Amino acid sequence: MSHPEQVRQRIIELEVEHRDLDVVINTLLKDPAHDELQLRRLKKRKLQLKDHITLLKMQLTPDVPA
To answer: A Pfam family for this UniProt protein (predicted)?
Structure first.
C-alpha cells in the first residue's frame, strides 16, 4: 500500500471514531445526570481527532507555489 493510500485509510478510521464520539456525546447530553468530566474528555478527544484529520488531509494536498 502506498503512502497516500495509508493516509486516506487512516483519515477514514479517524472520521469513523469522530462520528462515534459525536453519538456518545449527544447521548450523554440527553442524560441530565451525565458526568461533566467524562463529557469534557470526550469533547477534547473529538477535537484532537478533528485536528489530526486536518493535518492528514493537508499531507495529501500538494503544495502550490505562491
So the answer is: DUF465
